Amino acid sequence: MPGPELTEEQKRQQFEAACEAKPLKDQLPSLRAIEGFPIGKDEDILALSETPYYTACPNPYINDFIEAFGKSYDPATDDYEQTPFVSDIHEGKNEPIYNAHSYHTKVPYKAIIPFIEHYTQKGDLIFDGFCGTGMTGVAAGILKRKAILGDLSPAATYIASAYCLTHDLNEFSKLATDVLHKIEKECGWLYETNHIDGKTKGRINYIVWSDALLCPYCKNEYIFYDVAVDEEESKVLDDFPCPHCNSTISKKSSEKVFITFYDEILSRDVTQIKQIPVRINYNIERKRYTKKIDTNDLQLIEKINRTPIPFWFPHDRMPEGDESRRNDKIGLTNVHHFYTKRNLWVLACMAEYTRGTSLFIVFQSVNFGLPSKFTRYNLGNRGNGPVSGTLYVPSLTAENNCIQLLKGKIDDFKKVLTLRNHDTLVSCGSTTELQILSNSIDYIFTDPPFGSNLMYSELNFIWETWLKVITNISDEALINKVQRKELVEYRELMTSCFKEMNRILKPNRWITVEFHNSKASVWNSIQDSLTKSGFIIAQVSVLDKKQGSFKQVTSAGAVKNDLVINAYKPRQQFEERFLKRAGLDLEKDFVYEHLSHLPIEPNIERTEQMLFSKMLAHYIQHGYEIRLNARQFYNLLRDHFKLIDGYWFLDNEITKYEEWKKANGLQAIDAIAKGQQTLFVTDERSFLIWLYNYLSSPKTYSDIFTASRNILSSSSMIEDQIPEPKQLLETNFIYEDGKYRRPTTDTEREGIEFRREKELQKSFEKILELALTGTKKIKDVRKEAVAYGFTKAYQEKRFTDIITVAKKLDKEILETNSEINDFVDIAQLKVGEGI
Question: With a threshold of 0.85, does the pTM exceed it?
Fold first, then answer.
């Protein structure tokens, strides 16, 4: 008989004992062969790690953790059933856990909690392969779930470990008091200034620095702050008079002033943009004052600049990259250049006294943004801070008091450390090669990189030089010309990551992918990568993070809210049956499997167009023969499933749907349909789905035209030659009594589909002829016609026709349509095999 169930504490002790027998130091040589192993010396990796729960390299204790805390998967007894989480989430960021440590982008942990609650039970194992600061682990810990977190970045995983691992609050508080006392004693004088009365010493809060510029007319130097800042109105003027020649000038029309000096750290002369200290904000006890820089302040700066810093600090050359080297043109080329000498001194002192302690994470939260030259001076309108997601150095910077910053962050982390959770494991490495047992994870929530939105390794470089462990960029999934990674490479890396996630996830379980990108090509790449890795997308909804980042707010065409993709790994029996029969006569089985994973309420996935599209994608990506065209597929739906309100259901779902409809009313159906379709009008097919849902009741052309114009003009992701609404209405709907309506009889549906196929076939023949005879790339094309033609060519084994057209299509057409791209991939494979 099996022994008694172990308690959580006994499991933890057993796990820790098993890991102690395998010291990380002894395993590092073999771990270095794993993809994504960071750049750093063994001693620095070991110093940063907190084994076995966090290793600053691929964590070799993951499977021991799973063995101790996981639940084994047995297909014979597994009874897990769940439909996707469908509610929209509205959770802000302004609370202690979220704010304790900044990062370029992260999902509030409170927004993740509902997903974990929906998909998992207490004790289940959650995975996040792009964990960032570990908010998935925080959410899992609050809900008494276990979590395995991974990220390529040492900075990210170190932050995640601080959020998710157990720390003694009393010990932390005592250490903080001691360290602050040492730093104040060592460096307090660096932030002293004379009060305007000349008698009292004040404590500097921040110093305002300004660019020096040259007038474009008289070529005399002026201080930008002195002439452009209206202190009374607290604003920066676009145009202002030159203080020398009185000409109207602007910052844009002026040249920057540069100075050359000897850099003792680099042992050579450097030339940098000239910045001048102009104002000091300081405190006398609790009262704040502002004054102009005086002689004593300048003498203190001079003293600091000629005195060697008595502690270690990084001075690495910034890595190659458009973001990381954007400041080369103003002479800021190495890490230490991004700090004033004063703040570099204090940060080096902090690093000396906190490294190797629980307080080092607080130093890490301080050392990058607010004390650096990235910090904008905001004229007292709001707090000074850097531009999120960039390494932009503004013309007016604020040199913040690092000691005060440290005190504030200590208070923030005291609130964070009340969360006690030692049931999280953190690993630093690539998600393309996970050292995790197959079918061992109960749920995945992840927030992957967004194509070219953020250059994580470049943005993290300064942080990581202080850690002495740097990101290995070879497997970084992004679009970056310096790394020679375009959309194709991004898609391939994301596919590799999702394949690994699919492998480790238990069958019939869910993955939630939170995603933000305004480009249809990147959005399609994420969906394509998920599908190619074996997942089937069931639901897409919205995550409102309330506060947009800088790029979300200002970029042209930026999507306001983040999208959340819910996808499932099919049941093991389903996959095995499909593989055994190569999909033959299993179209009905596919529809049954997919419908059983959908929410009972109206859902875009329940429309016949989406069901056909999903079936096609599954068959194409597995190389199965496609035996049904659209008309035959719709006949299959009518023979085996139930159509209600324009959505398809299983027989055993009808009662539940009728109950839902009775409880929520027809207005709820219309609201759901409108919200879903508005979000995803990106091409002709999604526009047709929107039209179908909009015509839940007959409408005049005038009403349809007005509504469709609003939908098409509001979407930033349309990259398709969509026919005029009139043409689509004539081909796909019924005109009766002055209004357009949906088809309601089998005869009407047959006639519509026949007309549509005939029209698409005619359009594809023109595209094929142009590809055969034309010399130029085909840029403007009706993608639905291409997809239809490729489907028929695939069925008839005319793979050379697919390749012929693909060679002439503009690259962006292939990048923005997963279905077309899938046909091309399989056709190239078939031709290569001589089929």
Answer: yes
